[in-house]
């Protein structure tokens, strides 16, 4: 094919690819006061708006009153333009760490709107996109909206250097975290890294103490370090009661508790997640019986 005939074809292909590609991230989208949640897509450098954030109402989070007060207080300070800390929530699986973050954001934003003040934005950054944090922060410096960066289920493995990107953001400095940005993270691990990784670092390093400090110190850079622990039986049943009341399930309390404990025994654990799964299954079962 002659070059003169090939050129129009290449131009059409290029135009098609441009139309298929999403537009670059624009900080102006954060100025929409009706949009509270986004996901950062580090590979393409775009913000994906989430119209309806999946969240559990704050009133359904039982047995963690102290943790709720801490996260709500810190989030309120930040929304009011006051000094606030980065937050690490760590502990047992399924105990509501990420639910607590989202529920507190929604509750604070409800207060903000009721009082005529701008709401916060929550941007979830996937674990695999931490290396693109500088790119996201450059975008957030161009907006005045106050933003919580949310890193859910955070942990690092051997030979994983992405923790250094997060560490630099938490440290601040001339190119660190802007004043309108906080970091909230959740993890099942207290120090974000497995114990054997820390031990290996100690065994392989010339100076074991410095190697361990480099790994463990990441957690220390969160000003609030909040633990959520496994649920006792009364705690678990209080969660069950709250869910059942919210859904108005037609079942006697003794029967509800009996079946809830049986479900937990089959799952081998008691947690908010197990309670939610039980209520979902029970709701469907009761609805089927009522047909």
From TrEMBL:
Which source organism does the UniProt entry give?
A: Parasaccharibacter apium
Question: Know the name of this protein?
Answer: ATP-DEPENDENT PROTEASE SUBUNIT
UniProt xrefs under SUPFAM superfamilies: P-loop containing nucleoside triphosphate hydrolases
Key words, A-Z? Hydrolase, Protease
Q: Under the GO molecular function aspect, what terms does this record hold? A: peptidase activity
Pfam families, alphabetized: DUF815 (PF05673)
Which branch of life, at top level? Bacteria
Question: Hydrolase as a keyword?
Answer: yes
Q: Where is the organism placed in the taxonomic lineage, from the top?
A: Bacteria, Pseudomonadati, Pseudomonadota, Alphaproteobacteria, Acetobacterales
Q: Does the keyword Protease apply?
A: yes
User: Do you know which InterPro entries this protein is assigned to?
Assistant: DUF815 (IPR008533), P-loop_NTPase (IPR027417)
GO BP term (any one): proteolysis
């Amino acid at each position: 094919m002659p070059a003169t005939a090939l050129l129009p074809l290449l131009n059409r292909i290029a135009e098609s690819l441009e139309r298929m590609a999403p537009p670059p991230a624009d900080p102006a989208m954060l100025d929409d006061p009706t949009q509270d949640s986004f996901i950062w897509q580090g590979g393409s450098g775009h913000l994906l708006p989430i119209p309806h954030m999946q969240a559990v109402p704050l009133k359904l989070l039982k047995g963690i009153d102290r943790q709720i007060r801490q996260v709500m207080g810190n989030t309120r300070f930040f929304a009011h333009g006051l000094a606030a800390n980065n937050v690490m929530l760590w502990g047992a699986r399924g105990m509501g760490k990420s639910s607590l973050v989202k529920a507190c954001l929604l509750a604070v934003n409800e207060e903000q709107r009721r009082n005529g003040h701008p709401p916060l934005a929550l941007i979830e950054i996937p674990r695999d996109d931490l290396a693109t944090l500088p790119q996201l922060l450059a975008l957030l410096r161009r907006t005045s909206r106050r933003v919580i960066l949310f890193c859910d289920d955070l942990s690092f493995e051997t030979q994983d250097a992405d923790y250094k990107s997060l560490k630099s953001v938490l440290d601040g400095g001339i190119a660190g975290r802007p004043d309108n940005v906080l970091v909230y993270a959740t993890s099942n691990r207290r120090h974000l890294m497995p114990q054997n990784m820390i031990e290996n670092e100690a065994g392989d390093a010339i100076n074991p103490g410095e190697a361990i400090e480099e790994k463990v110190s990441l957690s220390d850079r969160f000003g609030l370090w909040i633990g959520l622990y496994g649920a006792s039986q009364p705690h678990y049943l209080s969660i069950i009661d709250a869910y059942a009341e919210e859904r108005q399930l037609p079942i006697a309390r003794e029967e509800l508790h009996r079946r809830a404990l049986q479900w937990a025994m089959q799952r081998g654990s008691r947690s908010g997640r197990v309670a939610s799964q039980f209520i979902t299954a029970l709701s469907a079962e009761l609805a089927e019986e009522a047909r």
